[in-house]
Amino acid sequence: MAKLWSGRFTKEQDSLMDSFHSSIQFDNRLYAEDIRGSIAHVRMLGSCGIITDDEAQVIEDGLWDLLEDIEAQRVEFSPEAEDIHMNIESLLIERIGDVARKLHTARSRNDQVALDTRMYVLREIDEIIDLIRRVQAALVERAEENLGVLMPGYTHLQRAQPILLSHHLMAYFFMLQRDLERLEDCAKRTNVMPLGAAALAGTTFPIDRERVAKELGFDGITENSIDAVSDRDFVMELLGCISIIMVHLSRFSEEIVLWSSSEFGFVTLDERYSTGSSIMPQKRNPDSAELVRGKSGRVFGNLLALLVTMKGLPLAYNKDMQEDKERLFDSVDTVKGCLTIMERLIDTMVFNAERMRTACAGGFMTATDVADYLVRKGIPFRTAHEIVGKIVLFCEKRGLSFSDLKLEDWHSFSGVFEEDVMDVADLDASVSARDVYGGTAHSRVVEQIELAKKLLG
Ligand code: ARG
User: Fold this and answer.
1) Which CATH architecture has domain 110-356?
2) Is 85 in the active site?
3) Active-site residue (options: 156, 262, 278, 443)
4) Which of 19, 261, 277, 403 is the catalytic position?
């Protein structure tokens, strides 16, 4: 097949080169963006008198037909035509003849691929945001339904202070809220239309860039044609946003893996999202959570690969930039898959409230409350901290917990202790005492849930 750019060539391309540089195997997923972009472009060419209205109409009709046939899987793409952009142009020429040779007037593949990629990124951002909202909704639902459940809060994976399970779940809600806002922000910078940059310097034709932008639903147009075709910041940004989402999903997955172990026993995963062992009949493994945790690695790798690809490139377009596609597509597919499975996992896991409460007992998790008690009796916090540390040491040596201590034991550490110290050393009291905005007290977690519901709309 003759290449669309074969004019200045005298030799056929080595078939090895075709398979080496062609991107159609993966960029074919941009077909809808490419055709919609071409339709907007050709309409503008017609309205600006760069081609006739009739020509524009014939090309547009041909593009719509082609779109329909691609969607019905009646079209085969060819690696010889390199990429989705030239496949579509070649197919159009094949179908409607020479008039289709006018489509590429005032345009280059360099601004075309920038356009298609921006459109794709914007579409996927919307889809990822939808999936994030579903995970958030699942978290809110489980948080609301488990408001009475106490669990140990950890620092250094050591039991720290009692918290509400709902509080812990809502932490992930707010992480995902930032993820969502980051994506919205990334969309703002992606939402500029690059056509008109042509190869890099702009075009000699009197085109109307604003018209194309408006027709395609862009908020604006790129400011500098060289930047327009060199810029893949929006892809790097999206891969960065996705990487942070994966950090969050991976941390939650790690907790799910821990929580579902016999050592913790805090949750039981639904069988539909667990797997068995090929040798050990008793096993039920949290593979779904492990895979989400594991897939974070490839997503971070995709970001790094693109950063490294871009960092040494002179302006403007270089073929290296074609390497953005597989990284982009893989990260998008991966994060969507992970968000989808996480929603189901959250929806179906069973919390073991008793195990969580039992895990709070005996570990001096209310030591901070006792120190705060002393502060309310006029003792400086640092001193109170030391006193309670000594009490903990005393108990540990004797295998006691706070509730085993008599008033005279307390008194031997400080005269200000009264009978009511036992109230503050209580788990539920400890939770309700953290009545600060954002804190773990029941009413404060309800506040977070209310806000979350508002954000979900
Ligand atoms: N397939 C190319 C890419 O993804 C399209 C742009 C090609 N431009 C060029 N001058 N070779 O980057």
Assistant:
1) Up-down Bundle (1.20)
2) no
3) 156
4) 277
Write the pLDDT tens digit of every residue in 169-204.
999 999 999 999 999 999 999 999 999 999 999 999
Q: Which residues contact 238 (CB under 8 A, 6 or more apart)?
A: 121, 124, 125, 183, 186, 190, 328, 331, 332
pLDDT, mean over the chain:
96
Q: pLDDT value at position 53?
A: 98
Residues 372, 193: Cα–Cα separation, whole Å: 58
Ligand 1, atom 3: nearest CA belongs to which residue?
Answer: 322
Residue 299 to residue 206: CA distance in whole angstroms: 42
Give the pLDDT of residue 278: 81
Q: What DSSP line would sit under 428-440, residue for residue?
A: HHHHHH--STTSS
Lowest mean pLDDT among 70-79, 268-277, 335-344: 268-277
Q: How confident is the model at residue 276 (pLDDT cuts 50, 70, 90)?
A: confident
Does the pLDDT at position 2 exceed 80? no
Closest C-alpha residue for ligand 1 atom 11: 319
For the question of residue 411 being annotated catalytic, the response is no
Query: Does 110-356 match 367-425 in CATH topology?
Result: no
Q: Ligand 1 mean position to 110 CA, how many Å?
A: 6
What number does the ligand 1 atom closest to the CA of 321 have?
Answer: 12
Residue whose entry in the numeric block shows the structure tokens 């600006």: 48
Tell how far the Cα of 69 is from the centroid of ligand 1, in angstroms: 24
Q: Domain extents for the chain?
A: 14-105, 110-356, 367-425
Pocket of ligand 1 (CB under 6 A): 23, 27, 83, 85, 109-110, 113, 317, 319, 321-322, 325
Q: What is the pLDDT of residues 363-395, one digit of tens each?
A: 899 999 999 999 999 999 999 999 999 999 999
Instruction: Name the pairing type of β-strands 158-164 and 150-155.
Output: antiparallel
Chosen CATH of 14-105 out of 3.30.360.10, 1.20.1070.10, 3.20.20.140, 1.10.275.10: 1.10.275.10
CATH class of 367-425: mainly alpha
Q: How far is the CA of 65 from the centre of ligand 1 (A)?
A: 25
> Whose C-alpha lies nearest to ligand 1, atom 2?
322
**Per-residue pLDDT averaged across 106-117, rounded?**
98
Question: Which among 169, 155, 171 is positioned nearest to 351, based on CA atoms?
Answer: 169
* Mean pLDDT for the stretch of residues 108-125: 98
